[in-house]
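Session log. Operator J.P. requested a structure for one protein chain; no other inputs attached. Running the standard single-chain path with C-alpha cell output.
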Amino acid sequence: MIKIELERVDGDYGFEAKDANGHTVRLDTSIEGGGTNFGVRPMQMLLMGLGGCSGIDIVSILKKQRQTIEGFSMKIEGEREAGKEPSIWKNVTIVFELTGNIDPDKAKRACELSMDKYCSVAETLRHAGGDLKWEVRVNQGQKA
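Structure written below.
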C-alpha cells in the first residue's frame, strides 16, 4: 500500500506532500484562486505524472533494445473541460523528443507500448474520458 502525507505549510493553500521515502512535492492553487504560487497545481501534477510514467517506460524499453539515448524530453499540453466541476482533462497532447543512436521505428513502438499498455497514468486519464494524442520525434545525432 502506498502512503502519502500532506501538510499545509504556506498560506491557505500551500501544501507539501511527502511519500514514505521522504520525497516531497509542493502544491498550491492559482493566485486567482487565492494561492501564492508556492507549488504546482494538482491537475498539472497529474500531467507531470503522465510524463514521468511514460518516460520511465520508454527509456526502459529502448535500453532493452540496446538503443543509445543521449537526450529525452517531452512537451505535454492539456485542455480541461470547460464549465464543469470537477473539470477533468479532456484533451492531452504529448510530443516525445529523443536524441541519439535510436531507430525511429523502435522509438515509436516504445512510445506506443507505454501509452497504450504500460503507463498507468495514461490508462487512468483514458478511464476518466481523456483523449490522449502523441507523436515521436527522433534526432539521430548528438544532443544539442
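Operator note: Residues 89 and 104 are 29 Å apart (CA to CA).
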